[in-house]
């Protein structure tokens, strides 16, 4: 009691201490996670030109898009699509607002008329668009307060109607905007003339190429400062998004040899009868095995991961790993267990039969309502179609010629060939049709139902008879046991624990694990061989994840990986190491070009070629539009320089793509001026206007103020 009294005396103090602890916990978490102190909002996916994309609304649109795609898009793909749509809408709307572009009420009615004039709901008795009926429809939707009303083949409510109106208006404003831009695009006569002469004016040249490969790489020294200077002078080419370099090792959940041995042993146990205690009857009963099962189909379907196939199979239809053996077995013989893909199988031959590989039949098709490819002219119910087919069969059996009844068939294609169809066992025919043709004898005729309706089929010919087998196969999928799964988890856990104080690569080598490198950006999702792994990407880009950190990840239908961040690259210019891949060869060629130019003392192509150990070459009829130089490849600088020379003139050394060139113009073929360049002007206008829409949006996007928070909010 004394202790209880002391607790009561200090109850206020205890309450205060607990309250302060909870407050510290909440405040600490707030400082850690809340955007209030970090300058960004967890509820804002992105801010574009000052306009926020709300996280909740964004996710609702993503869900709707994914639902509409039927699961064909991953969540990341859907998010990217919706983000791009929202980005485009906001960027363009900023421009529309600046220009005062909008859709007024009267214009909106005209747009709705254009969109919905074909709908009977909005037409008068003469089939003309009636705006009063449109107004009444919209008013009715508003009064329904969320309930739907039919419109054509759709059901719409007031919200979906207004959303559609907004979409129509937005498309109209956008089209007006682009039309205004396109109206300002034109081609001058001078531009048309230049375009014409770019093809029509030709130049013949003689040239010498001193290739960069004539200077050994060892004679040029490229330093880090050279690469950095090149990067600084070509910033657009070396701007890079933030990325992460990660390595990982795999721990696959695959069946062990012991697991596979047990699967094979379990399959063999199914052959013989076995006793089994029945809890209900309190008796030991005999469970029939494969050897004595009377209902083979039921036995297979009860014990197999693949259902029973009650068909005679040809060699090409049997498992490749077992077909030769299965075709040699007698009825009742077994083969297996054998491995076929991701299954172990035990097969028993049930029956053998000689069957043809190809057949020829003729048929009469009586389609029914609901049948495949049945059009509006088909009026018979399945029962009526069968009755008609049965009556045709009766007439044939009583002596009426098959050909005399062909006019009753709806298969117009085969009718042109006396109703005959010839096909082999691989043909994509209706299964019931195919089965009758192959499993019956020449001369047999009967009614067969398929998804197309009812057929009267007569077997005319069968060719290339070969042995076929009907097999009952019990298949057991090869999967790891619980013990194996636990072993894989233990190995992964031990590796992760060891990696905390050890060398990741060395530990992997000790365990015969392959260290795989991967590089990705913040919005990527796929890892080669592992598929979509956004969780790994998110972790690598988390602010709390540092270089050297590692973590395990469960991979669906695979097992685990342990990943380690080896480098964090932030947005900006590439490092000299990364940029050197493309910059180094260019810088080397620039330095080699300088050495080559210093060696060129002569002024004629012939002398330079002789002094540099090269052969002079010629190129005829080169044009400004075709920058390929015969014998050298694509060389735009060299071709451009040639067109700047007079006939007979020789250029100074030109640094090209593959070497240093000196060019002599041997002939200029001038083109005849055209009397009229209208056709060329029209073509250039169309080309430029067609490209304008994409080019304008890219320019607007580049100039927009975009704060992208996707990685922190929804990705």
List keywords for this structure.
4-stranded antiparallel beta sheet; single chain; 42% helix; 26 strands; 24% strand; 5-stranded antiparallel beta sheet; disordered N terminus; alpha+beta; 715 residues
Explained architecture:
By secondary structure, the chain is α+β, with helices and mostly antiparallel strands. It has 23 helices and 26 strands. Strands 10, 11, 12, 13 and 14 form a five-stranded antiparallel beta sheet that branches. Strands 21-5-25-24 form a four-stranded antiparallel beta sheet, sandwiched between helices. Strand 10 and strand 11 form a beta hairpin. The protein is extended, with a radius of gyration of 40 Å. The two termini are 57 Å apart.
């Amino acid at each position: 009691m004394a202790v209880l009294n002391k607790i009561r005396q200090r109850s206020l103090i205890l309450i205060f201490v607990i309250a302060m602890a909870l407050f510290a916990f909440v405040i600490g978490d707030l400082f850690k996670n809340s955007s209030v102190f970090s300058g960004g909002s967890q509820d804002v996916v992105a801010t574009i030109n000052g306009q926020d994309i709300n996280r909740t609304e964004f996710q609702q649109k993503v869900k709707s898009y994914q639902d509409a795609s039927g699961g064909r898009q991953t969540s990341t793909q859907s998010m990217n699509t919706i983000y791009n749509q929202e980005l485009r809408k906001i960027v363009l709307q900023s421009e529309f607002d600046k220009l005062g572009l909008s859709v007024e009420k009267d214009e909106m009615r005209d747009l709705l008329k254009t969109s919905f004039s074909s709908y009977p709901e909005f037409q008068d008795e003469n089939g003309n668009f009636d705006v009063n009926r449109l107004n009444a429809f919209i008013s009715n939707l508003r009064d329904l307060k969320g309930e739907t009303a039919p419109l054509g083949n759709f059901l719409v409510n007031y919200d979906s109607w207004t959303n559609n109106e907004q979409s129509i208006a937005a498309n109209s404003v956008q089209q007006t905007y682009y039309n205004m831009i396109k109206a300002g695009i034109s081609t001058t006569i001078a531009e048309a003339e230049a375009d014409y002469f770019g093809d029509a004016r030709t130049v013949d040249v003689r040239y010498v190429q001193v290739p960069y490969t004539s200077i050994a790489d060892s004679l040029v020294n490229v330093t880090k400062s050279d690469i950095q200077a090149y990067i600084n002078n070509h910033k657009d080419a070396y701007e890079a998004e933030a990325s992460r370099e990660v390595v990982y090792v795999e721990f696959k959940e695959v069946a062990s040899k012991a697991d596979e041995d047990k699967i094979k042993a379990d399959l063999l146990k199914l052959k013989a009868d076995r006793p089994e205690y029945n809890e209900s009857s309190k008796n030991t009963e005999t469970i029939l095995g494969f050897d004595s099962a009377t209902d083979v189909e039921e036995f297979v379907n009860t014990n197999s991961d693949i259902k029973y196939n009650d068909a005679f199979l040809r060699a090409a239809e049997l498992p490749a790993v077992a077909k030769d053996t299965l075709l040699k077995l007698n009825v009742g013989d077994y083969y297996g267990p054998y491995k076929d893909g991701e299954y172990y199988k035990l097969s028993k031959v049930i029956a053998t039969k000689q069957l043809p590989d190809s057949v020829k039949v003729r048929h009469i098709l009586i389609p029914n309502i609901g049948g495949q490819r049945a059009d509006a002219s088909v009026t018979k119910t399945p029962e009526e179609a069968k009755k008609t087919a049965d009556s045709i069969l009766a007439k044939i059996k009583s002596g009426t010629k098959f050909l005399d009844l062909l006019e009753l068939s709806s298969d117009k294609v085969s009718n042109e060939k006396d109703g005959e169809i010839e096909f082999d066992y691989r043909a994509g025919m209706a299964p019931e049709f195919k089965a009758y043709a192959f499993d019956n004898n020449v001369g047999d005729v009967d009614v067969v139902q398929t998804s197309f309706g009812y057929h009267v089929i007569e077997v005319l010919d069968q060719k290339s008879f070969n042995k076929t087998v009907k097999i009952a196969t019990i298949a057991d999928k090869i999967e790891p046991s619980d013990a194996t799964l636990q072993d894989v988890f233990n190995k992964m856990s031990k590796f992760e624990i060891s990696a905390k104080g050890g060398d990741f690569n060395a530990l992997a080598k000790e365990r015969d694990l392959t260290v795989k490198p991967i590089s990705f950006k913040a919005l990527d999702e796929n890892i080669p061989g592992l598929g979509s792994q956004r969780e790994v990407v998110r972790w690598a880009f988390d602010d709390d994840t540092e270089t050297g950190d590692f973590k395990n990840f469960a991979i669906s239908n695979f097992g685990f990986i342990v990943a380690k961040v080896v480098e964090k690259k932030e947005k900006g210019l590439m490092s000299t190491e990364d940029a050197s891949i493309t910059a180094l060869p260019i810088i080397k060629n620039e330095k080699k070009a300088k050495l080559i130019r210093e060696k060129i003392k002569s002024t004629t192509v012939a002398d330079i070629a002789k002094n540099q150990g090269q052969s002079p070459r010629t190129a005829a009829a080169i044009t400004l539009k075709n920058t390929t130089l015969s014998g050298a490849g694509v060389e735009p600088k060299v071709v451009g320089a040639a067109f700047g020379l007079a006939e007979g003139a020789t250029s100074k050394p030109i640094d090209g793509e593959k070497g240093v060139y000196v060019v002599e113009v041997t002939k200029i073929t001038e083109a005849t001026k055209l009397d009229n360049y209208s056709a060329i002007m029209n073509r250039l206008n169309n080309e430029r206007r067609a490209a304008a829409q994409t080019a304008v949006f890219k320019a607007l996007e580049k100039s927009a103020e975009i704060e992208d928070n996707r990685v922190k909010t929804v990705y």
